[in-house]
């Protein structure tokens, strides 16, 4: 089963998740070590693998530019260790940041308490504040204690030993009743009058989910994790980060750390690390100090692509990457330093100035799951999370007992996506990262640059590109364009949109998402019956949510796709992670171009323009009323021709009226009128409302039918006399959430007889319609007159079921209608309020309900509404998608196949 149905990560056709073939040394090491099952928590349980972990940790430190062999033998050395994954590494880094921030507070309290174990430390013991002023430690304010530099804090134990003979072992025992790991954060906060919300941990909006989890586990609380919005490139917005730091400084909110994401898992973005490090320097001069952590679980291994140079100034991040000679490359295949943007190289180079770094070898390190790692620039920091005294571990080397520390005991493809679609195609492919020409704002310049990509990059090796660049000015070189394409690393994010036959771009986000969902279904495995060998290209998808990408990034991407961008809808996107070196090796054979052609062919087959066509079609209505007849339209949210909520007042011809009155009240079936021929319903209603047509222009023919009797009157002449509602139901007209705290209905009819239709403000939804409802008002009669006036007005009325909470019940399934608790049944009574509809007949209802009660203050009337026998419900047709295959219990089939294997063993 595994051989037949596992995803072929090793194939260059697989371009989806962060998975590919594993390296042979990693696999062999994994297999061999499992046999011996070592435990690196202590040297005696793992004499060889503990040393191997030390060696690997040192190699990782060197990779990030940490000085493993400092010029001064007394300087601290870096340290790194292995964790099970990046989540645990991130958790440990936050644990360290918390302990570091509170260590001076614990030390000071141990000195200040009358019976404190460190009360004998002389008043002359002084430290430098982060602003460089030398002050007696006992005179520092709580704010100054919270903002000491990392090195100042880590130097204290050694200084207490060298100046006063206090050994690290005794110091740890003395602080046991004072440190945050023993007494907790709350006691120290109370003692120093630090507010509950006065600690902050700044992270990029593209953060991994592990950060709020880590804040909860470390006792900081997830509210202390502050998201900083992204810029249009998906990187942390440095200006907004600076504003947040300014606010923290002004309000004296301690900042534990700023996390830079070096390789976001969605779009492969590298936060501007060099600017973040520079910000720390600036704010330390102002009195605010914090750690800088690089979450480079994905991007850390890309530091291998930097030139090795140990001559940089390790203490001055301003001496980082800018102006360094990176060479011209020019060898065949992938040229390491040339496949990265210049700014990405600079930010990777700035890793050496971070205090801690997370990296996942099981991602870009090509080793099996699970494998994470955490590296510290100053290795002494690990002593803040150890549960034994430093310098006392047994064995050959002090740090060999690794387990006592920590929580545990693509540019070719970016060019392809950028130039994939032609103006003549019925779809567009837009990369998340903007092309250089997009800055001009001219569509012609963008198309010219796309053509240049097709001519000078696609199908070419790096050697051919470099050869063609000889003699060109630096700004004109094709290699410069290649480096500017795509994301900061090797994750390419892109999205699709489709065109109407006349060339217009679709503007509905929901419809663009629909196309992409159909394509991803073709290019991924979602059933045990799928043949993995038959899928020509593997991609994966993600959602850009407004909560994370809002504030400019998501809106900009939607606008570039030609979509509405003023609504808070998530956007489905494709992710292409270039992990397989075989894809690049196959450039000469046109392999990448072949994958592009494959995607184009699939998209061409899945562009579903019929779903969004205008024009004539068959339409059906529920029929309500006795004297005055009303038609309640049966919408279909997945077909444009039927994506509206319509309520009509009509006149039936004599035969039709007679047949209808014979049925009304004498059948338990719903009475349906279906047009007997295709009509352009939208056009017919427009003619009626404009008042420009003749009588015959607002007439159509329909068949009156029930489930039991079939067609009881054919070709009934139906004349529209009033349009009560004609509201769009496309995604741009929908609310961002279902109604909360009530369920809304359109109330319509006459003073003598009222009917109601459920307001559809989100998708998927349920159609609920009831004729001849009974309203019992709680006032003395004034409400009835107000309701009658509203029903006769152009806008009409809305009735809310005040004790029925719609959001809690959505989305409805066909099975939910059979439950005894289903609320919409004949004879049911509800507490209701009746309101004026504030919008016109044809206006969208988007965001109307949120302001309804606040705007009108008081309803027209309140009371009880009771449903009669004329009650109809539909969830199937309303949500049916005739262009999508119906699914089945795919996961259930997988489980049954495993049970079959189990029964056979």
TrEMBL record:
<feature type="region of interest" description="Disordered">
    <location>
        <begin position="309"/>
        <end position="332"/>
    </location>
</feature>
<protein>
    <submittedName>
        <fullName>Pyridoxal phosphate-dependent transferase</fullName>
    </submittedName>
</protein>
<dbReference type="GO" id="GO:0019752">
    <property type="term" value="P:carboxylic acid metabolic process"/>
</dbReference>
<dbReference type="InterPro" id="IPR015424">
    <property type="entry name" value="PyrdxlP-dep_Trfase"/>
</dbReference>
<dbReference type="InterPro" id="IPR015421">
    <property type="entry name" value="PyrdxlP-dep_Trfase_major"/>
</dbReference>
<feature type="modified residue" description="N6-(pyridoxal phosphate)lysine">
    <location>
        <position position="363"/>
    </location>
</feature>
<keyword id="KW-0456">Lyase</keyword>
<dbReference type="GO" id="GO:0030170">
    <property type="term" value="F:pyridoxal phosphate binding"/>
</dbReference>
<dbReference type="InterPro" id="IPR050477">
    <property type="entry name" value="GrpII_AminoAcid_Decarb"/>
</dbReference>
<dbReference type="GO" id="GO:0016740">
    <property type="term" value="F:transferase activity"/>
</dbReference>
<keyword id="KW-0663">Pyridoxal phosphate</keyword>
<dbReference type="GO" id="GO:0016830">
    <property type="term" value="F:carbon-carbon lyase activity"/>
</dbReference>
<dbReference type="Pfam" id="PF00282">
    <property type="entry name" value="Pyridoxal_deC"/>
</dbReference>
<dbReference type="InterPro" id="IPR002129">
    <property type="entry name" value="PyrdxlP-dep_de-COase"/>
</dbReference>
<keyword id="KW-0808">Transferase</keyword>
